[in-house]
Here is the input.
Amino acid sequence: MHAATTSLTSKEEKMGNPDLNEFYTRYIDALNARDAATVESMIHEEVLRLGVPYPREMALWNPSK
Here is the structure.
């Protein structure tokens, strides 16, 4: 199994609906504000896309680059 799928902290493992709601509200607010620094801080260092690992930088859209 890939490290990104097995390295969850106890907080992540126990994240419930109120935590998810608060997280996604902050995430959507940051996206709407185009606050790239906040969005980047909320995304794991490695993301999976169709089961293939990618670094966070490839998951972010940055119009200034």
Observations:
- The two ends are 33 Å apart (CA to CA).
